[in-house]
Amino acid sequence: MRGDGGGEELLGIGAFAARARLSAKALRLYDRLGLLAPAHVDEVSGYRYYRAGQVDRARRVALLRQLDMPLARVAEVLDAAGGDEAAGLLAAYWADVETRIAGQRTLAAYLRARLSGRNSEMHAAFEVETVEVPAQVVVTERRHTLADELPAWIGASLERLEEAARACGGVTGAPFVVYHAEVSTESDGPAETCVPVADESAARDWVAAQGRVRDLAVRVEPARRLARTRISKAQVAHPQILAAFEAVEAWIAREGLVHDGPCREVYFADWGAAGPADLVCDVAFPVR
What we know:
Layout: E1 10-12, H1 13-20, H2 24-32, E2 40-41, E3 48-51, H3 55-66, H4 71-78, H5 83-115, H6 119-123, E4 128-133, E5 136-143, H7 150-166, E6 176-179, E7 191-196, H8 200-210, E8 215-221, E9 224-232, H9 240-255, E10 264-267, E11 279-287
Antiparallel strand pairs: 1-3, 2-3, 4-9, 5-7, 5-8, 6-7, 6-10, 9-11, 10-11
Helix pairs in contact: 3-4, 4-5
């Protein structure tokens, strides 16, 4: 069949599918999703026709999908203004994939250790102790967040709260994050970032001035006894940090102590200046 205008050859869906090395079912899906529309659809029969020049786009869709690229990102790559932009979008997607795979590889190793009964070996790497923490006034921000979003939110939130603390008499202790419920790829907490401040009245005025932009609050964190272990910057990453939490919980059980509040991470060192092996964080549980 010849097309209108330029006389470019139009292929029926079967012939086009064969040339593009795709199934007719896949072509119908790409059409429905707006990735590859037919050049012509017969008004009576509904039969689809494609230009021969669309073969290259069809093959690109198929190849990108073989990378498990979501359809929305496939559309971004295909519709990029030029080759360099499209290549950049693909590179960014693949960097995300490699980051995810690296995390999954570490998680798989962690799970193998657990399933093989080597929990005690993992726990032995962590030294646990108890410390007494006095009551302190904290300005806080609470958010429901999944694990993938958690690190970025913690960094941005603590930066906001520390900036506010400078107008509230200054920061008086190490910032920390409280987990009121599980944060994982399927459970969204909530988590609460906390920064100790000197001036409770000024902190309350600052929170009031923010309105309802974020879930901000000022409260008095009571004096607590914490069971903690110190971990390096590299160990803060998921899932390495899970072993630290489990080690502290196992120690609490062995010592006959009782949980007395939600678990937390206390960031006592300069994160930006720390190297991977530097101790930066306490993984801790309130106990009595």
